[in-house]
TrEMBL record:
The chain crosses the membrane at residues 6-27, 59-81. This is VWA domain-containing protein. Keywords: Membrane, Transmembrane, Transmembrane helix. Coiled coil: none annotated. Pfam families: BatA. Residues 3-74 form the Aerotolerance regulator N-terminal domain. NCBIfam families: two_anch (TIGR02226). The lineage of its organism: Bacteria, Pseudomonadati, Planctomycetota, Planctomycetia, Gemmatales.
Length: 935
């Protein structure tokens, strides 16, 4: 009985007060006295006629007054129902609050109070102003744990939710801000369930999980199915899941996706290579995305070197379209190298930042870092197949050595042997193999490991190469480091008279295999400007006319390598076959041209003209390249001269009905135009491989020596070296991701020194930060040994910047001597996942609930949902219907009381019945000798 009321004693007092109207009624009845007088009999008879009606009305009035007092008792006693435990949780409740502290939660805005805040700040308010106070009102015990998405293992527990613990929560949360690390909601949900089960033990505990997040579309699109599985497991286990959207503008109940703030993100700052020479111009690529619908103009980015804007430069993107990205390239040179006193000075930190931050969105993605190691000279290991000819022009390394050490500079030419290929290759920026006959199996495996980990390997072939060994050991049926299988023999010796004709032919001796190749990183700098835009004129290719390649290894365009997407054919030679080999397929193709169809009538003049020319050329004995040039004119896909004839031909080939014919024409043109491959590139693991099928010296070609054709040799070799050296350049190493390296246990000490190099230019200020920029000691780490290898696992990169590591190599001096310790340095930059976190688009309500079945979605503006956390049932006083019933009873009671009132007005006496009027006006004598009785 007591459980049915929140204030039971107030109700019982009300029940007792129900007797008050009854007592008053009885007292009023005692006012009537029976007095015998002359008209008494007549009055008694009249009263008997009215008695039933009067008694009924009086009892009804009494009932209404008692009911009114009873209802007031219910109101004051706060009646909760006849089954007070229905709908109430009687068990202890355990809450786990998961804070999404990913970078996107730093989306800032100006609140209603005019102060700047962010989504993470709103999440704090939801906990301390809504969830915790509601749980504190519950009658049963309430426990609460707080975990951050970036570090879900670090849990803060509050054993009892009350006013004191709420203040502790505020203090605890003051130490947190959005983290640069992007966490996993799936893992956090699993850990939350594990924590809840640990708290419950064997007892019955109600379990509730609250997720305070911004519910970005990128997160739910990528992990929707995994989240669905995790939430389904929770709801199946009867865990209540509340999802609270704290992003601004605050979510409403609309079916459309809520609005989001615009944002600019620096998604990439990438050097062409991680190790560069002092004073060498190193190319960087800055990639920026506009995550908003508005096109932006003249977006500027200052570039700082070691925190100093003066040593960097400022780059500008003229136009940044909405919901799109743009890249810009720039060059930097470095003058600081490591010294004996300051060995870590070999690393330079390059920082790009948005000059004018946007009014809303994220701040953390407006900065990006890169780390570059600067050396006096870059060591390049060179294995020469003919070391005796090293100083001769016919030698394979003669021109390359002078190019890299003198013309380009900054490189250390390190002659080596096949035995060196079995040693540690990591100190070398790349390895060059010049006309090497064969590679032992042990060396081949070490080369594969070196390239797979990010090294660069370049091959120049020659007459001493043994194709069988290459195919078996290096190509390995497409699984090895070598990109293509070699034929059994090199190309045949060309007679002198034929050689003379080919040398002085006006056609290019080196051809770009496909226009799309211009974007390949091995040649992109040749064909594109600093902004990555194609150059109008291919200045370099005009020198290809003066290059002569006598012999080479003729790789066939058949086999498994053609399907390998990691292999690219960059350059090839022209087809030098006789015209007679292609006359029949050419005539067959020309006969298929639909010249007589009416719908192609406007293209007929151009097609007729080219058909006549191609037929005549195919039946001649002219050089094959002349036929290839006519096919280029026919397809109109190689040049952009802008003439009306070219435009009409492009329009003709755009017709869907001739798509198959166009493909056939393209294949025939390629057969006629392109000869055997010259230059291959292959991506292998994290590293890169190049193969040039002729010699680097004068044995088979004059490319490097004879002007003016040799003008094209240095640029291509320079880009080849940059391509090989840039294999280790990580485009986007993200904070929170582990860095894994392995070392030979017998050659390295297990202890690693760790340092952090970084600053926040938006928070600390550029000049102040630059003055104080120095590596911060992160303490030493001991590597674990497994299977003869030391395993280095670094997972402590929790803020953007450069992380530097010093490994100690044990290098034996001589037999019987102590091992010398040689430091080996590694640097890596870690940045925010701006590509994902910078996209502030938000998920629709339906999409969220579909991925989280059984969960409830709330917003900051909806605080009513926390009533369920109070763990109490609403009493009748909270509903308006009880007040309505009380009002109706009061109205009816008052009306009936007026009708039966004994204080009628004087004019009512005149209109009353005769007996009543007489009773009211006649003076009644008092009979003193009789005892009055109640009427």
């Amino acid at each position: 009985m007591f459980e049915s009321f929140l204030n039971p004693w107030s109700f019982f007092a009300g029940v007792a007060l129900v007797s008050v109207p009854i007592i008053i009624h009885l007292i009023n009845r005692m006012r009537f006295k029976r007095v015998r007088w002359a008209a008494m009999e007549f009055i008694i008879k009249a009263q008997k006629k009215m008695k039933r009606k009067l008694i009924f009305q009086q009892l009804l009035l009494l009932f209404l007054r008692c009911l009114m007092v009873f209802l007031i008792g219910l109101l004051v006693g706060r009646f909760v129902g006849f089954n007070p435990l229905d709908g109430r949780e009687t068990r202890t409740t355990s809450h786990v609050v998961i804070f999404d502290d990913s970078p996107s939660m730093g989306d800032f805005f100006r609140g209603d109070d005019g102060q700047l805040t962010d989504a993470f700040g709103e999440a704090k308010k939801v906990l301390v102003d809504q969830i915790a106070p509601a749980a504190a009102q519950a009658a049963t015990a309430q426990t609460l744990e707080v975990m951050m998405l970036s570090t879900p293992q670090a849990v803060k527990s509050f054993e009892r939710v009350n006013n004191t613990s709420i203040e502790e929560m505020k203090t605890h949360l003051n130490g947190f801000a959005p983290s640069p690390v992007r966490g996993s909601l799936v893992e956090a949900l699993k850990l939350a369930k594990k924590s809840l089960d640990t708290q419950a033990g064997n007892g019955e505990v109600s379990q509730v999980i609250h997720v305070l997040s911004d519910f970005r579309a990128t997160d739910w699109e990528a992990d929707g199915e995994k989240i669905k599985t995790a939430v389904t497991d929770l709801t199946t286990a009867k865990v209540k899941v509340h999802l609270v959207d704290v992003a601004h503008p605050f979510r409403k109940d609309e079916k459309q996706a809520p609005l989001h703030h615009d944002n600019i993100s620096i998604v990439e700052l990438k050097p062409a290579k991680l190790v560069t020479a002092r004073y060498e111009a190193l190319e960087f690529t800055l990639r920026v995305r506009n995550n908003g619908p508005t096109e932006l103009k003249d977006v500027r980015f200052p570039i700082a070197v070691n925190g100093d804007d003066g040593k960097g430069q400022s780059v500008q993107i003229p136009t940044l379209p909405g919901n799109d990205e743009r890249s810009i390239k720039f060059l930097l040179t470095f003058d600081r190298v490591g010294t004996a006193d300051k060995p870590l000075d070999r690393f330079s930190l390059v920082t790009a930042r948005l000059e004018s931050p946007e009014p809303g969105g994220l701040v953390i993605d407006n900065v990006r870092h890169a780390v570059v190691e600067v050396r006096d000279r870059l060591p390049m290991l060179v294995i020469d197949g003919r070391p005796a000819d090293r100083e001769k022009k016919e030698g394979d390394g003669f021109y390359l050595q002078r190019l890299f050490t003198d013309a380009i500079g900054g490189f250390k030419w390190v002659p080596g042997s096949l035995k060196d290929l079995e040693g540690d290759l990591r100190p070398y920026t790349c390895v060059l193999m010049l006309n090497v006959p064969a590679v032992p199996e042990a060396a081949a495996k070490n080369l594969e490991s070196y390239v797979r980990d990010g090294g660069g390997l370049g091959f120049f072939l020659g007459p001493d190469v043994k194709p069988g060994d290459y195919n078996k050991t290096l190509y390995a049926d497409g699984n090895g480091v070598f990109p293509v299988p070699l034929p059994e023999q090199p190309s045949a010796v060309v007679p002198e008279e034929v050689k003379l004709v080919r040398r002085f032919s006006p056609t290019k001796k080196i051809l770009l295999r496909d226009p799309a190749v211009k974007g390949h990183p091995a040649v992109a700098a040749i064909y594109n400007d600093d902004r990555g835009q194609p150059l109008k004129n291919d200045e370099l290719e005009r020198f290809f006319r003066f290059v002569y390649i006598d012999r080479y290894w003729p790789v066939k365009r058949i086999g498994k390598w053609r399907e390998d997407r990691s292999v690219s054919e960059l350059f090839c030679m022209p087809n030098e076959s006789p015209m007679g080999e292609y006359d029949k397929p050419t005539i067959d193709f020309l006969n298929k041209l639909p010249l007589d169809e009416p719908k192609y009538a406007k293209y007929k003049p151009q097609l007729d003209d080219l058909k006549v020319k191609i037929r005549a050329k195919a039946l001649s004995s002219d050089p094959l390249y002349e036929l290839a040039m006519l096919f280029d004119q026919l397809l109109a896909d190689q040049r952009a001269e802008g003439g009306p004839a070219e435009a009409q031909l492009r329009e003709f080939w755009a017709q869907p009905e001739v798509a198959d014919l166009k493909a056939e024409a393209g294949r025939l043109r390629d057969l006629v135009k392109f000869g055997d491959p010259l230059y291959f590139a292959k991506a292998f693991g994290k590293g890169r491989v190049t193969v040039i099928t002729t010699t680097a010296g004068e044995t088979w070609t004059d490319w490097a020596s004879a002007p003016p054709g040799n003008t094209s040799f240095p640029p291509i070799m320079t880009e080849l070296e940059r391509y090989l050296s840039g294999g280790t350049a990580e485009a986007n190493r993200l904070v929170g991701e582990p860095l894994s390296l392995k070392f030979d246990e017998t050659r390295y000490k297990p202890v690693v020194a760790r340092w952090f190099l970084g600053f926040d230019p938006l928070k600390d200020g550029v000049q102040r930060a630059a003055a104080a920029l120095a590596p911060a000691d992160l303490k030493e780490q001991t590597m674990s040994a497994t299977g003869g290898q030391l395993d280095f696992q670094f997972a402590d990169a929790t803020k953007p910047g450069g992380y530097l590591f010093t490994f100690t190599q044990l290098k034996s001096q001589s037999a019987g001597s102590d091992a010398a310790e040689v430091p080996e340095y590694v640097g890596a930059a870690f940045n925010v996942d701006a590509a994902t976190e910078g996209d502030l688009r938000r998920s629709k309500r339906d999409e969220i609930l579909k991925s989280a079945p059984g969960a409830e979605l709330h917003s900051v503006g909806d605080a009513d949902w926390t009533d369920v956390l109070k763990n109490k049932k609403s009493d009748w006083s909270e509903g308006g219907w009880l007040f309505l019933v009380l009002l109706l009873v009061l109205i009816v009671e008052h009306a009936l009381a007026v009708k039966l009132s004994y204080n009628s007005s004087s004019h009512a006496d005149h209109s009353a019945p005769t007996v009543a009027a007489m009773f009211n006006r006649t003076a009644v004598p008092t009979a003193k000798d009789e005892t009055p009785t109640a009427a």
